[in-house]
Amino acid sequence: MERLFKGANAIVLTPFNEDAKVDKNLLEKYVARAVDSGCLDGIIMCGSTGEFSRLSFEENVEIMKIAQDVCRGRTKFICGATAGDSYTACRYVEQIGKLGADGILIAPPYYFTLTDEEVLEYYKSVINANDANVPIIGYNIPQCTNPLSVNVFKELLKYNCVKGFKNSWNDMQQITEEIAIRDEKRPDVSMLTGLDACLYGTLSLGGDGVFSAIAYLMPEVSDFIIKNHGKYDKAFKCQADLIKLINVVNRFTFPFGYRVLSDALGCPLGVGREEIPPTMALSVERAKQEMKEIYKGIITKYLY
Q1: Predicted confidence (pLDDT) at residue 68 exceeds the cutoff of 80
Q2: b vs e for 133-167, b when ≥16 Cβ sit within 10 Å of the residue's Cβ?
Q3: Residue 67 falls within a domain, yes or no?
Q4: Alpha-carbon dihedral 147, 202, 40, 28, rounded to 10 degrees
Q5: Residue 156 is part of a domain; what is its CATH number?
Q6: Is residue 275 part of a domain?
Q7: What pLDDT band is residue 109 in, cutting at 50, 70 and 90?
Q8: Alpha-carbon gap, residue 127 to 147, rounded angstroms
Q9: What per-residue confidence (pLDDT) applies to 231?
């Protein structure tokens, strides 16, 4: 059965200027560059790596509009609606519907601890507010929000507007169980990883692709693994080399490591809105050099 979401989908990183305001011109330039690569199936605004939680409601909606103008008719346009409460999430859903997006990515609320029943009610509120009937993609990222359990996942599959599920946790047992449930109950639902290190493994289990910042910064690499998975061992070796790069990214707190990677690949994002210890400067420069060398090796070995 044809699924709506598959392949390499890019989580857009947010650039800032010197006074910590969103750099709209740079955002438009970088999104256009990603779309122009020809390697992407979708662009995702206001995802976790895009630091949506550090932006106001108005800023998030504004950057959605900027990306919409770039993506129009060229690739899928997906927007995040995750919030700390259902009221704000529903406001995002309303705005996203007006923009005519191709999908809504939404994780459970963060900060306050909720039960499964409360997480499910949050999703029900979003579904009820989705007057435009935009396809919804559930999102499990327990390191940042309340977990989206297998039980809640099963309940969400009962709603026809739920067309995808992104898992950003490296529990392969849970991922295997969820894909098996999908195959039995809702074969039209896309199963996606949010962890680039799990891309090859997720595809091997029957998953459909990735939603990630790596796909934004290195779309050709994600595209290579996806298109060559199962064909020959280069795809697996490329995945293994990509993990070496991810290990360097993960030396830093999330999502700062991806800002370092973006800078290393020639797309500086500015200082941002987080405070970085001055003592980190040397380790950042060393990491950027390592990132450049690993990336060059990947491109040389697998793409040329």
Answers
A1: yes
A2: ebbbbbbbbeebbbbbbeebbebbbebeebbbbbb
A3: yes
A4: 30
A5: 3.20.20.70
A6: no
A7: very high
A8: 19
A9: 82
